[in-house]
Amino acid sequence: MTVVHRKGQREPKGPEPQSREEQSAAFTPPVSSSNAGELSVPKADVSWNGRNVEIPDHFRAYLGDKLSRLEHFDDSIFRFDVVLYHEPNPRRAKDSEVVEVTAVGRGPVIRAQGTGENFYAATELAFDKLQKRLRRSKRRKQIRKDGQHRATSLAEASAEAMPPIAEVGELDDATDPWDDGYDEYRPGQVVRVKDHTASPMTVDDALYEMELVGHDFFLFHDSETDKASVVYRRHAFDYGLIRLA
User: Start and end of every Sigma 54 modulation/S30EA ribosomal protein C-terminal domain (predicted)?
Assistant: First the structure.
């Protein structure tokens, strides 16, 4: 379908939102799933955010049970941010449902994203990634607790590297991460500004935190040079470093 303006100009019409039937199908539990037993509830607060998606109660209970299982990796986690949305691109029909989960605790923010043909499949993928990153973070904390202060090498930091996540930035509050506060867009307009507190860290620590959140780059304060620096992932499965002169 197209929209015709008075001057005769045509522009493509944006994708139509999912119908109630389509949303209901996206939240249908798989046949192999079992609801036997009482589902656990996480101790941490959970921030739910459905982007044009109404999250049913049965799925909240299912996802809450999986979140509670992650808490034993890090008992300092005090909030989980959960975002669900539908990718309307017809070419991505097999991974059109997206689940993003962010764990916020005393350590670095850990985030993972999963996609699938329904929200249950996307959740399984997201939690598999998140579990690996939480386990890696727990091992690193244990090394430091035992008195071994050796920095993680680049090979170790990239050993369990996850695919990059399209959305850059962390869900650092309970507000809608898709609401940038601008109702009208203009070319070249800065639509989002985020301020982050930064503690000085080494390049290896910056690479480690970049891998935990699954981003392609990470801005940090280099403790060795006292300069603002950026580490980034290259296509050749290695890393790059940019420093301000």
Answer: 188-241
Q: Is 119 helix (H, G, I), strand (E, B) or coil?
A: helix
Residue type at 68 in one-letter notation: S
HEC profile of 199-215: CCECHHHHHHHHHHHCC
Same domain, 89 and 55: yes
Please indicate, yes or no, if residue 6 is contained in any of the structural domains.
Answer: no
Domain shared by 107 and 168, yes or no: no
Residue 67 lies in a domain: yes
The three-class DSSP label of residue 86 is strand
d(CA 213, CA 209): 7
What's the mean pLDDT in 181-185?
58
Query: Considering the domain boundaries, does residue 7 fall inside one?
Result: no
Q: Measured between alpha carbons, how far is residue 82 from residues 67, 102, 139, 155 in Å?
A: 10, 7, 25, 30
Tens-place pLDDT, residues 96-145: 899 999 999 888 888 999 999 899 999 999 999 998 888 887 777 666 66
Q: Is residue 91 included in any domain, yes or no?
A: yes
Q: What percentage of the chain reaches a pLDDT higher than 70? A: 67
